[in-house]
Structure formats: structure tokens, C-alpha cells
Amino acid sequence: MQIRTNFSDLWVQVKRISSEKVDFTIDLASRVEEIDLILREGKEIRLADLESHNGLLSYQGRQVLLFIPDHGRNVLAAKDDPEAGRRFHVAECSTLEDMRQRGKFERYIATNNTSGVFRIVGKDMSGHEELVFDVPLMVCINCLKRINYKNYRHASHARVEIWKPFLIADFFNNYSTSFKRLPSTLGRVGVSPSYSSDWPEVSASIRRAAGFCCDQCRVNLSTHPSALHVHHVNGVKNDNRRENLRPLCADCHRKQPMHDHMFVSAKDMAMITKLRREQGILAKAMTEVYHLADLSVHGVIGHAEANGWEMPEVGFEIADHSGQVVAELELAWPSRRVGVYLHEKPPVPGWTLQNPAEFLGPA
Questions:
Q1: What is the number of other CB atoms lying within 10 angstroms of the CB of residue 63?
Q2: What separation, in Å, do the N-terminal and C-terminal C-alpha atoms of the chain show?
Q3: Which of 34, 164, 221, 355 has the fewest other C-beta atoms within 10 Å?
Q4: DSSP 91
Q5: Average pLDDT, the chain
Q6: Is the separation of the CB atoms in 177 and 215 below 8 Å?
Q7: Is the pLDDT of residue 29 over 50?
């Protein structure tokens, strides 16, 4: 039996919202699997179950953080003061390595929940009553050193300002491109109720008027219009005055203040970087290097700069004798023949190619 349906009314409404067509794919970054839901609640694991990717903690290809729920008789102190609690871990740091070497068999929980609140347990002072609290914990400083988060290694006079305000969502934002799957709590969501009802039309109009060019880095995204966002400058989502609306590529958008819950997939970041290079958008000063580079390699840039290295090239391509591109690097120092990659190591003879953890070395 053949079913015939008239969708003309539906298409009228679609065209009312926007006449432009965009590519749509359901990729690994947007899929939610059972393990994502389990990790949201937290999963008990052994240290041996953890993986390390670019120095970051990973479980079954997902970025995770690790904590120990058992606080013993210190649980009340941790409830009243987060600094009195056990630290949670985000990287393959010296503390975790020491735990492995000493064969510590604590109960470890891996999670991708970005709320910053952890369920901890312990005993009252008598040692008889079991207590359970949901409390904020502090991040491990050795983790921040290991990956040079926000240049922690070299910010000797500002380390407390990096450590104390640490936000898990901000951290996951910075390193979202290092993983093929984003945490389930970071999935793409629909338009927030705080936006005006005509926001799809307003947004489409702003992007078209800009010629699908980012107002900050100037990359032209006419071939990938969905990667061009419209940013509310003052943060008020229903303030659609023209002076408050700024078209920004996904990368420039997530680097705006107070945008720690905005995440960019590895695929989209690679596309933006490639288009920037093809369009001649290159860094001419170190400040521009930081702006054009993926957030996940900012620690590498800071470490190289602190060690007196010259300005790197962002999105560098290595070609063979025939002109065929054989490697696409996040950062490169061509005069040194040194490059940094995020995913698979390109087989390029004569170059020293390292992932961020290898470049940074032990803290």
C-alpha cells in the first residue's frame, strides 16, 4: 500500500523560519549511548580501566573526571569546606601515577557530569553512622600542571586564581575537540525559552547580511552555514537589537566570556581551521595565535612561549614532493620541524610530531 501525504503546509512553515539549507548529520558527537547515561550518574571503575588521551582522562572514548567518594571521618569537614575534601582528577597526573604504583584500591568513580557537585560518603565522628552529602570538590592541582591548564605551570603568581574558580564545564569546553564523543550532558539542545519566538528568522537574517563571515576571525562559512552562530553581546538572549547581535563562527563564539557550556566537535573545529588557512587567515602576533588555535592546545602554546620558542603556525599542513597534503597539524614550528597533533599521529619522516601531553612532558 502506498501512502500519499501532502507536506505543502509544512514547507510553508519551514520557509517562514529560514530559506537556507544546511548540512545535517547525526555523528558520534551527538549520539547518546547507554554508557553516556551511566557516566552521567557515575560509574565505579578501577584505575586500570582508565585511558589517557592527550594527557586527559578517558573511559570508552569519553572524556571523564575521577573522584573518590569515601571521605571517612573527614566527610563533615568536606561538607563545610570544599578545600577540606579529596580532590577530583581531570588528567593523568603524578597523583594518579603514585596511586597506581602504591597499589591503592580505593573506590573510584568516573563521571562526565559537569555540575561540579559530587556525592561523597563517610562516617560521623563516632564512626557508627554513615553520612551522605552532595558537595562541590576542588580539582587536583597536579592535573592542572600536567596539561598546563590556562598556563598553570608558568602562572606562578596567579595559580590560585586559576585553581579556585575552576569550572568543569569550562574545562570540558576547552578540551571538547580532543574527543570524538561529547559527554551526554553537553549534547546539542534546542532553542532556549529565553530566546524570542522569532529568533530563527532573526538569526538567519543576521548571518545572511554578514555574507556568512565571522565578525571576529573573518572566516567565510558560506559552505558550512550552520557553523556560523549569532552571539548576543550583552548576554540577554531576547535582546535582538542589531547592535547586540554579532555573527561569530562556532570557535570564536565559544571563546566569548561566560560561554563555558558551548562545545565544538573535533570535526567542526578541523573544518574551521582548514577554511581559515585556505582563506589566508593567519596569525601575525602571539595574541592572534591564541585566538585562532584550538583551546585544547593553549597549554602547549603557553609552555612553548615560556621556554622562549618562536610563534607557531596554526593549522599547519605538510605536503609531500608532489604537493599532496600528508599531515594537518594543530600547531607547527617549521624551522624546528616540530608539530603538535590531537588525534592520529601522521607518519611524516624528518619531523618530531607529538600530542599535547608528549610536548608538555611530565610536570
A1: 23
A2: 68
A3: 34
A4: B
A5: 88
A6: no
A7: no
Strand order in the sheet with 338-340: 313-319, 325-333, 338-340, 352-354
Q: If you search the block for the grid coordinates 565559544, which residue do you land on?
A: 254
Q: Mean per-residue pLDDT for 54-72?
A: 94
Provide the phi-psi class of 151: left if phi over 0, else alpha when psi is between -120 and 50, else beta.
left
Strands 352-354 and 56-59: unpaired
The burial class, CB within 10 Å (0-12 / 13-18 / 19+), for 54 is buried
How far apart are the C-alpha atoms of 216 and 166, rounded to whole Å? 27
Q: What's the whole-model pTM score?
A: 0.85
Note the pLDDT tens digit of each residue in 151-162. Answer: 999 999 999 999
Look at strands 313-319 and 228-232 and give their pairing.
unpaired
- What are the distances in angstroms from CA 350 to CA 206, 327, 329, 358? 47, 13, 15, 17
Nearest to 61 by CA among 25, 95, 28: 28
> In terms of residues, how long is the chain?
363
Alpha-carbon torsion 340, 344, 348, 353, what sign?
Answer: positive
CA-to-CA distance for 250 and 264, rounded, in angstroms? Answer: 7
Q: Find the helix or strand (DSSP H, E) in which 62 lies.
A: strand 62-63
Higher pLDDT pick, 197 / 87? 87
